[in-house]
Amino acid sequence: MQVLPHVSRLGRRTATALGVLGAALALTATSVGGASAAPRPDDPRPLHVKPGQAYMGVGARIHEGVPAEEPPRGLLAPTGGVQGIDVSHWQGAINWTSVRNAGIQFAWMKATEGTGYKDPRFNTNYPAAHAAGVIRGAYHFALPNASNGSTQAAYFATNGGGWSRDNLTLPGVLDIEHNPYGAMCYGLSTTQMRTWINDFYTTYKARTSRDVVIYTTASWWNTCTGNWTGMSSKSPLWVAHWTSASSPTIPSGFPTWTVWQYTSTGSVSGVSGSVDRNQFNGSRDRLLALANNT
């Protein structure tokens, strides 16, 4: 940084400090896009997982990168409104009463992956969240290269993805994102991927009477489905976008978002270490309408 001759010693010190700060911010900005960025030290979730151990957002963490500290949001942080989290076995034991008392109103938890994996904490988390008054639901981590969409939807519906109108149960979620085990689009063409998603949707609805919620990122959806508009009138959108912006970037073909996963490194009382945090796009009454299919 060039310092003009007439600047005082104090001015030079201030300018130097600003230069150091600017360099630090530039380094932070670089790390945001780096695929080799590490998770936060208190985050129990690994960047590289074995089959069956995927969790919501892991594909984006591997392929798009996640910084050790995500961009600070300040006044733009969407921590108001209706707040939620999503969890898997990586969060370990959860005190759901503490979670609810911390202002968390809803949660989705991993139930299944592919057709051969059940999350070992699901059968504990699901009823415990319900007992604590958290409006909860289940999600399925899709493996489109392992079996067809209909088969995986049936497996999900049978192993945690069911639904009942009890004021505390949300429809199931299809978590379809960057492949954490290999090629981004699981080796499927855009046409094949559209068929897979539609088959999952159709079977899940036949089994539960509900439209499945789709969790994804704009980059994955636009690339792997070819900007498909075919689900926009069927499935509520849950978009992952970890950003300092005041609203998320949504996939092509969806008019708006229903849930926004705005950070993968959040913290909530009752959960050890990092946890994904989410905002519902509406009031609690609208969340209950989604839960109760009204």
Describe this structure in words.
The protein has helices spanning 9-32, 58-63, 96-101, 122-131, 149-158, 190-208, 218-224, 284-292; strands at 82-87, 104-113, 117-118, 135-141, 173-175, 213-216, 237-240, 259-266, 275-280. By secondary structure, it is of the alpha/beta class. The chain has an eight-stranded mixed beta barrel, surrounded by four helices. The relative contact order is 0.16.
Offer a quick outline of the entry.
With 294 residues, the protein is of the alpha/beta class.
List keywords for this structure.
single chain; alpha/beta; eight-stranded mixed barrel
Task: Give, in spatial order, the strands making up the sheet with the most strands.
Answer: 1-2-4-5-6-7-8-9
Radius of gyration: 21 Å
- Which structural class is indicated by helix and strand composition? alpha/beta
**Helix percent band:** 25-40%
Question: What is the first-to-last residue Cα distance?
Answer: 60 Å
Number of strands: 9
Mean pLDDT: 83
Largest sheet at a glance? 8 strands, mixed, barrel
So how many helices? 8
Overall geometry: globular
Percent of residues in β-strands: 15-25%
Element order, helices and strands?
HHEHEEHEHEHEHEEEH
Report low-confidence residues grouped into runs of 5 or more. 1-38, 67-76
Task: Give the helix/strand layout.
Elements: H1 9-32, H2 58-63, E1 82-87, H3 96-101, E2 104-113, E3 117-118, H4 122-131, E4 135-141, H5 149-158, E5 173-175, H6 190-208, E6 213-216, H7 218-224, E7 237-240, E8 259-266, E9 275-280, H8 284-292
Parallel strand pairs: 1-2, 2-4, 4-5, 5-6, 6-7, 7-8
Antiparallel strand pairs: 1-9, 2-3, 8-9
Helix pairs in contact: 5-6
